[in-house]
Amino acid sequence: MQLQAQFLRMCGGHVVSLSLLLAAIWAILATLVAFLPMRFQYPPGLVLLIAGPCLLVYVGVQHGLLVALLGLLGFASMFRNPLMFFWRMARGEKPEVPR
């Protein structure tokens, strides 16, 4: 406990919130999944795609709308191709599935 208090004094007493820590871990995992071959990206990518909006709501509750919107921009940037695919499917088009 004393070591933790000393570390907090060295860092100026600032602690990262759980929502921002989870968002950073999510971003790192999404980056790692992007390195996988396309056929192995689907299961973990789908989990990240579902978890992203839930995590953004959590970030928004803890830090406000502006931070959540910045997170949404990052989410949309990282998942632009899957989001465009689902958008086209919702409009009734038949988009090409990448291999």
Short description:
By secondary structure, the chain is mainly α.
Describe the secondary-structure layout:
Blueprint lengths: L1 H9 L7 H17 L3 H26 L1 H14 L1 H11 L9
Helix pairs in contact: 2-3, 3-4
Mean pLDDT: 85
Query: How large is the radius of gyration?
Result: 18 Å
Order of helices and strands: HHHHH
The largest pleated sheet is described as: none
Task: Give structural notes.
The protein is mainly alpha-helical and 99 residues long. It has a domain at 33-99. The chain contains 5 helices and no strands. The longest helix is centred in the middle third of the chain and has 26 residues, at 38-63. The mean pLDDT is 85.
List keywords for this structure.
mainly alpha, 5 helices
